[in-house]
Amino acid sequence: MKAMKIWYLAAVLVITGKAAAQEKTVKIDWDQTRQVSKTIPTLQVVYNPMLRENSPIYRSTFEALKNLGAEYVRYVPWFPYPKAAVAELKPPTKTETFWDFSYADPVMEALMKAQDGRPVVINFSTTPAWMWKTAKPVGVDADADLVNWNYNQGAQLTDTTGKEVAAYFARLIGWYTKGGFTDELGKYHASGHHYKIGWWEVLNEPDLEHHITPQLYTRLYDAIVTEIHKVAPEIRFTGISVAYETNPEWFEYFLNPANHQPGIPLDAISYHFYGRPTIDNLPLENYQYSFFDQANGFLDRVRYIESIRKRLSPKTMTQINEIGTILLDHDYKPAIPQAYWNLAGAMYAYLYLELTKIGIDVAGESQLVGYPTQFPDVSMMNWKNGKPNARYWVLKLLHDNLGPGDRLQSTEGSSQNVSAQAFLTKKGKKLLLINKVDKPATLKLPEGAAHVTYVDETTGDNPAAESGITGNQLTLKPFTVAIVDFK
Q1: Burial of 44 (0-12, 13-18, 19+ CB in 10 A)
Q2: Looking at residue 445, what is its pLDDT?
């Protein structure tokens, strides 16, 4: 019977404080495919002292990364920790060079070991400060673990051709992929590293770091790609990596092949999004409105950028590799409440779903480890007990159940409060449910719904919980992300 091929999900949204419940029926046609997913759920790892071997959460952090098993993990050593992010902190003299990987190597080694051959996108994003014109030399703290927000200075390169910067990054690539490199004075430095780095991202947030223009960035990209390809021709590249995707000039200029040197590949572009509260220290339930409203605005801009990409460079991938939420008070006093992590996880799940519908290649959650002074609000690890928090477990739930090749089946009836999408996967029929508000939602499920795996306020820093489904009814707690399996 045809009716047996269509499941009906009657959703009753229970809104606290309202006398009558709003009923909603969601229809899923398991025979009608709307599109096929190509979106990879993943994350970014940003260098900070909590990733060093002397950190109390070092072991559990890299175990969490390994157990996640994600591809296209983005790793970014960046400017607040110059000793780990910059391998040549002083310019060479006529008799001496100053290459030093003693802080960069251990975390890079731990990352590559945890990834165990799975694809990575590496971005040593910081250029040496001495390559930029500054009012005075930029100092570096003796203590490598002290945050240094003043390192990234200068708006004009001393070598305007970009060849000096390009040669620096080519030597970095040689160090990590070819066993070593020859320095500026002709001396060979052996590393013993032969990592398989499939992707290299060129600079990070250039619209903020050094306030680079699209034109200068494109020239630097071409120069860096050219030199890296001389060392490692197999590497592919991610470009742009802007913090704010609101300026279409970046995409119009960079994605136009006419603005590049002949033969320069445009393998992928990247950009970032963070939801922010309009006013900090509001009751948590008010954050949901600004986060999801901003997420919807971002999705509109993604569609516009995709129209530019398809027009100018249709074979270029899109990697949206920083997705998160940021509080205005980064140290948040009192402590960040548990429900915040569930809200942030629900927003990532919502964006992953909508980016899948748009056809984005990579949706990367930011970031593995944060802690007070280092964006604690975007952490996926609890820096106090070393356990992954709800943001991590939401990502793992999505990674373990959904991904490229899944078929998005015709699904009607998502509401303002709950997103629902059916998938046909290699593992069977699945229904992704996201409660976007701080009110419970009771759903009456169709026959055949057998099992649910979920992350909610009760799971805390523990893995997703599981339960069977009886009576065809399921209640989603506030900010729950769930996967329902059907017989």
Answers
A1: buried
A2: 83
Using CA atoms, how far apart are residues 183 and 191, in angstroms rounded to an integer?
A: 13
pLDDT of residue 280: 66
Residue segments in the chain with a per-residue pLDDT below the cut of 50: 1-23
What is d(CA 288, CA 155) in angstroms, rounded to the nearest whole number?
38
Tokens for 139, please give them.
């100092």
> Which helix or strand (DSSP H or E) is residue 207 part of?
none
**In 3-state terms, what secondary structure has residue 336?**
coil
Cα(84)–Cα(63) distance, rounded to whole angstroms?
21
Q: What is the pLDDT of residues 390-403, one digit of tens each?
A: 999 999 999 999 99
Q: Is 431 helix (H, G, I), strand (E, B) or coil?
A: strand
pLDDT at 286: 77
Relative orientation angle of helices 214-231 and 163-177, to the nearest 10 degrees: 40
Residue count of the chain: 487
Structural domains of the chain ordered from first start:
2-36+408-486 (2.60.40.1180), 40-404 (3.20.20.80)
Q: Are 163 and 77 in contact (CB under 8 A)?
A: no
Q: Report the pLDDT value the prediction gives residue 330, as an integer from 0 to 100.
A: 62
Cα separation of 162 and 64, whole Å?
Answer: 39
C-beta separation of 461 from 388 below 8 A: yes
CA distance 386 to 384: 6
DSSP characters for 35-87? EE--PEEEEEEE--GGGSTTSTTHHHHHHHHHHH--SSEEEE--TTSHHHH-S
Of the candidates 16, 41, 10, the one whose C-alpha atom is nearest the C-alpha of residue 28 is: 10
Annotate 213-255 with DSSP letters as a single string. Answer: -HHHHHHHHHHHHHHHHHH-TT-EEEEEEES-TT-HHHHHHHT
Q: Residue 349 has which token pair? A: 């799940």
- The token duo for 63 is 């175990």
Q: Tell me, what's the pLDDT at 333?
A: 64
What DSSP assignment string belongs to 439-462? Answer: S-EEEEPPTTEEEEEEE-TTTTTS
Q: Could you report the per-residue pLDDT of 67-110, keeping only the tens digit for each?
A: 999 999 999 999 999 999 999 999 999 999 999 999 999 999 99
Q: What is the pLDDT of residue 1?
A: 34
Distance of CA 10 to the CA centre of its chain: 34
Instruction: Please say whether the beta carbons of 122 and 197 come within 8 A.
Output: yes
pLDDT for 442 equals 87
Q: How far apart are CA 44 and CA 368, in angstroms?
A: 6
